[in-house]
């Protein structure tokens, strides 16, 4: 960006999705200033402040004095999901500093708290419910655009998969209403008949007893605690296909990352998955219920029988066909390569100035 365009970043220094998302932004966009927010007192997550040399490190939610210090000398700020104190937006506007927020739809605070200060730009990380936020942005005179969350293809290089033997499901930490479809993935795999395939379910912490019970001690289903895994790219080593029947959600870093390394991704046939993936990778899903973290969100249940058949279909692929799908995965990921998306992010932030 131009010399006058001094970017500020609100970041996390843990191994969560938001931690990885903001760290990648830090590495590629090289912000002028970074404020790292440590909320480990709430979530107990290990912190890695060394990832952000010379950053402003704030323990707990930022105080007005922290915000004042951070905003000095900046032109535009990038925020992923939350500023951790909405005074940041108010004070930024007073100082003439522009704010761009890459929101997560389910936590779109302004529908529940309309008095909160507003940013200058809303960035959608997916097309999930884009039209809903588009109406909001128009009524509040805020810029709104879709910019997919980039993937670091140098850190996650393509390696062709030649067979589908080792399936992966990334459960992480349990989210509301089994967001990643962990129970569904386990049950679908348990119904497969192929004795030569396996499913590894990765968790961040101890495996919930409910998941172990769902597996019914199927020896092909393994649970692996990745809480202490420093490099998230290592999650995908030695696996062929990601099984990820998400029940709701927009931004999906595991999807981007798995595609980058050449892994096809089996998902539910819902938005935004069906905007990106081949139809033959998607299993039918139906609305089971709704909940309202901020916005009202439909919760989908994937057809378990169809999902089980999809897993078996991949396991039965010839080496040639599997390599074809692996190359398709890489081609999809190439659209979101940080080396390409960086220019789009720079252009978006520049448009605010």
Q: How does the overall form come out from the CA principal axes? A: globular
SSE series: EHEHEHEHEEHEEHEHEEHEHEEEHHH
Total helix count? 12
Mean pLDDT value: 95
| Relative strand content | 15-25%
Q: Which percent bin holds the helix content?
A: 25-40%
Total DSSP E strands = 15
Taking the sheet with the most strands, its summary is: 7 strands, parallel
Determine Rg (CA atoms, Å).
21 Å
Main sheet: which strands, in order across? 3-2-1-4-5-6-7
Give the helix/strand class.
alpha/beta
Task: Please provide a brief summary of the model.
By secondary structure, the protein is α/β, with parallel strands linked by helices. It is 32% helix and 21% strand. The strands form three sheets. The chain has a seven-stranded parallel beta sheet with strand order 3-2-1-4-5-6-7, sandwiched between helices.
């Amino acid at each position: 960006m131009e010399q006058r365009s001094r970017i500020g970043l609100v970041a996390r220094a843990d191994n969560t999705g938001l931690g990885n998302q903001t760290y990648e932004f830090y590495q590629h966009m090289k912000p002028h200033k970074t404020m790292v927010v440590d909320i480990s007192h709430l979530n107990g997550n290990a912190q890695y402040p060394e990832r952000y040399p010379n950053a402003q490190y704030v323990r707990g939610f930022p105080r007005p004095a922290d915000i004042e210090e951070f905003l000095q000398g900046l032109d535009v700020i990038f925020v992923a999901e939350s500023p951790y104190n909405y005074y940041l937006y108010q004070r930024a506007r007073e100082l003439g500093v522009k704010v761009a927020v890459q929101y997560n739809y389910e936590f779109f605070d302004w529908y529940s708290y309309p008095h909160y200060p507003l940013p200058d730009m809303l960035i959608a990380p997916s097309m999930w419910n884009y039209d809903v936020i588009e109406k909001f942005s128009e009524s509040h005179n805020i810029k709104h655009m879709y910019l997919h969350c980039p993937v670091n293809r140098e850190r996650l290089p393509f390696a062709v998969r030649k067979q589908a033997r080792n399936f992966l499901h990334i459960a992480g930490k349990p989210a509301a209403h089994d967001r990643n479809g962990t129970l569904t993935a386990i049950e679908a795999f348990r119904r497969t008949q192929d004795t030569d395939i396996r499913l590894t379910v990765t968790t961040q912490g101890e495996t919930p007893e409910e998941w172990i019970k769902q597996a019914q001690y199927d020896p092909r289903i393994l649970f692996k605690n990745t809480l202490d895994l420093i490099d998230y790219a290592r999650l995908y080593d030695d696996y062929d296909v990601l099984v990820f029947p998400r029940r709701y959600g927009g931004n999906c870093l595991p999807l981007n990352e798995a595609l980058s390394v050449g892994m096809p991704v089996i998902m539910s046939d819902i938005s935004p998955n069906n905007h990106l993936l081949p139809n033959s990778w998607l299993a039918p899903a139906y609305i089971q219920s709704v909940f309202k973290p901020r916005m009202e969100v439909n919760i989908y249940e994937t057809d378990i029988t169809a999902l089980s058949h999809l897993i078996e279909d991949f396991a039965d692929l010839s080496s040639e066909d599997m390599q074809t799908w692996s190359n398709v995965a890489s081609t999809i990921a190439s659209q979101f390569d940080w080396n390409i998306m960086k220019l789009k992010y720079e252009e978006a932030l520049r448009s605010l100035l």
